[in-house]
Amino acid sequence: MGFGMQSMLKEGHKHLSGLDEAVLKNIDACKQLSTITRTSLGPNGMNKMVINHLDKLFVTNDAATIVNELEVQHPAAKILVLASKAQQEEIGDGANLTISFAGELLQAAEELIRMGLHPSEIISGYTKAINKTVEILDELVEEGSENMDVRDKEQVISRMRAAVASKQFGQEDTLCSLIADACIQVCPKNPVNFNVDNVRVAKLVGGGLHNSAVVPGMVLRSDAVGTIKHIEKAKVAVFVGGVDTSATETKGTVLIHSAEQLENYSKTEEAKVEELIKAVADSGAKVIVSGAAVGEMALHFCERYKLMVLKISSKFELRRFCRTTGSVAMLKLCQPKPDDLGYVDSVSVEEIGGARIIMSKPAGGPRRDQPAPGMDED
């Protein structure tokens, strides 16, 4: 005789508990994730508005960005997120397809589980389907397509066109040419070691996509600190801690009894700053890059010794600048050693669309391990 909830249900019912219930809960979590990204699939996919934990707003239809900014808590859904990230890192496209396709497979599996099939039988069926799919795909591969010259612009464009069109439909012809030029310029001898971070995009207000160009070297969206705006064939010194007089960790008190003592105190400080700037100038450097504030007194002596001063606040941009010029970043203002200095063919401040930018071109064009940022005016 039945008891409890079992007695209230008619014959032929199935009460899910234990393993089946846990599997269905996992499937439901994955389906919810795929429902979020599914409507953004394809060139006509809709944009999503995502606000992350830092209250930063993202409006995008790129599934890789969406899942990166979502805070996914469920373990099963996290597996889908990891799969999409692996797809994005390995291929550079198809993150949305990975999640959406997995969601469809799990939805079909849910129906089979409710019909009474065991999950192991469903897994066995999907494994056979994978093997058959691989056989069919092998027959569809065009002969010779696996061989590719990564420095042939036409071959690079033909392979990236589909990925670019899914993000910027209708603009793929313009963008593919720019992307191919930038990637070929920075491609190392062994293409496996290609670093995606070596191609950057600098956006400027005004103009349009047709005004975009590839700039060998580096583009910084800022102005030079001093009056010197252009210099050629220069050695570069990079200081992370800024170009200014160093302050002590503890506060000190200086007791001054006369105007003469005050004047001598100021002269001592000026002499110390001038000594440091002169030491940098004597090392052969013509460009000083600061990662923090540039003091007024230090800037005055930089102008006197004809040194161009740049300020790069972002540590990531500073790291890229060091890699581009071959410089070694020093912690504090001091006389750099010859091995610490970098070199550039030219550094100049230019005005485009009302915005001032710094264009740095390395010696002999970009080396294979140097950034070549694309410049996009939009």
Automatic annotation (TrEMBL):
Record key words, sorted: ATP-binding, Chaperone, Cytoplasm, Nucleotide-binding
Gene3D superfamilies: GroEL, GroEL-like equatorial domain, TCP-1-like chaperonin intermediate domain
GO MF entries: ATP binding; ATP hydrolysis activity; ATP-dependent protein folding chaperone; unfolded protein binding
InterPro entries linked: Chap_CCT_theta, Chaperone_TCP-1, Chaperonin_TCP-1_CS, Cpn60/GroEL/TCP-1, GroEL-like_apical_dom_sf, GROEL-like_equatorial_sf, TCP-1-like_intermed_sf
PROSITE patterns reported for this sequence: TCP1_1, TCP1_2
This protein's record includes keyword Nucleotide-binding: yes
Cellular location(s): Cytoplasm
A matching Pfam family: Cpn60_TCP1
Family, per entry: Belongs to the TCP-1 chaperonin family.
The protein's name in its UniProt record: CCT-theta
The organism of origin for this protein: Trifolium subterraneum (Subterranean clover)
